[in-house]
Amino acid sequence: MGFESRRLASKTKKPPPPILSHEFIITNHGDIASVILMLVVIGFMFHWSLPFAQFMVIPQHNESVQFTGDTEPKMYYRSGSKDIGCIVFYTVVWITFHCIIQEYIVDKIQRRLHMSRVRLARFAESCHLGPIAALSCGFAVYNLYELGVHKDFSLLWQGYPEQHRYLTLNFKLFFLLQISYWIHQFPEFYFQKLKKEEMKERTGYSLLFLVFVTAAYFANFIRLASVLLALEYASLSLLHLSRLVYFSGKATNTGRIFRLWNLLFPVVRLSSMVISVLVLWYGLRSHETPYINFETGNYNTHVIRLNALIFLLLTQVYLFYNFARFHFARWNSRPTAPEPVPRKKTFKNKKDDKKSK
């Protein structure tokens, strides 16, 4: 009986997809990405492939610089064209990491919860974005604390571009990982077989993050971008935490977490607008230059600064508009309590009273 059942199972089993077909790539994209990473790492073992492996893995554009206050020269990093290798490599790392989290954590949780397709997509999105947002917020706060912004807020614009273009290793890795993470979102749309509606929504905020982080990194507005990203990721981490608790259905007090996010969201929007105006309109105005200087990395022209400020303000206004519209629509759709119907007083006839007597 066991042999016959195995024969029937082998007959009903689907044949493997052809090699290099769409189904084959989607099913095995995690293994393909891990093989690529392994080949790059093996390149460190051979002399002829060592330069390529270093170009792909190790951050480039490093210099020994001594600033005022430093007792000795320290190693700093700049942005440049050689960062493309690290961005490509870290993008493949994110694809592999995404596949591992999806297969060994998210899929197992989803099988236990038995959710609908829409909830499954939302739950998987929050499972990936929530921890990344929390870690990114902590990483950005640590970099700013190490820089000393909490002691001197003017460090966000003082010393631009001489000191802003030279980054510590943590700042360099933070922005390289951010750029590669938002790039890896686009091939994930293909690997996850997302619908057009889901793809449209995720493409919007992924492209917004990618443009903002990339422009800030290569234009040396690192410190301002780190503050804004820390605020934004704090809001996102709380949002996705509340969504995870809500979709899991394991807790009854999800409303408290959503209320906390409802309070944090407008605070983040207002804080981002105030900091952007303070740095771009008032702080960097004293260091303005009429033309872009690519050699010194000075992009502090009036046109760039004004356009960057308009972009940030419009983004914050747009996000707050969607937030307010969602809550107004939710408020209007709330079921109204039915008005109590007054009871009619019943009067007995006098004849009935006499009969009862």
Helix/strand layout:
Blueprint: H1 2-12, H2 22-27, H3 29-42, H4 50-57, E1 62-65, E2 74-77, H5 83-113, H6 117-147, H7 169-191, H8 196-218, H9 222-248, H10 254-283, H11 302-332, H12 350-356
Antiparallel strand pairs: 1-2
| General shape | globular
Return the domain count.
Answer: 2
How much is the radius of gyration in Å? 28 Å
In which range does the helix fraction lie?
55-70%
Number of helices: 12
In short:
With 357 residues, the protein is an all-alpha fold. Helix content is 68%, strand content 2%. The model is unreliable at 1-11 and 353-357 (pLDDT under 50).
Task: Describe this protein with a few key phrases.
357 residues, mainly alpha, 2 domains, two-stranded antiparallel ribbon, 12 helices, 2 strands, 68% helix, 2% strand, TLC domain-containing protein, TLC-dom, Translocation_assoc_membrane, transmembrane helix, transport
Notes on the structure:
With 357 residues, this protein is mainly alpha-helical. The protein folds into two domains: 33 residues, no CATH class; 274 residues, no CATH class. Helices cover 68% and strands 2% of the residues. The chain has a two-stranded antiparallel ribbon. The protein is globular, with a radius of gyration of 28 Å. The N terminus and C terminus are likely disordered.
